[in-house]
Amino acid sequence: MLHPKQFKVNEAWLVFRLNELPIRTELEGDFNCIALMDAASCFILGDAFAPTGEAEPSKMAVRRLLKEAKAHKQQLPETLFIPNGQFNSILPAEAERQGIAVGLDPLGE
Question: I want to staple 87 with a disulfide (CB 3.0 to 4.6 A). Which of 9, 56, 68, 99 is the partner?
Answer without folding.
Answer: 56
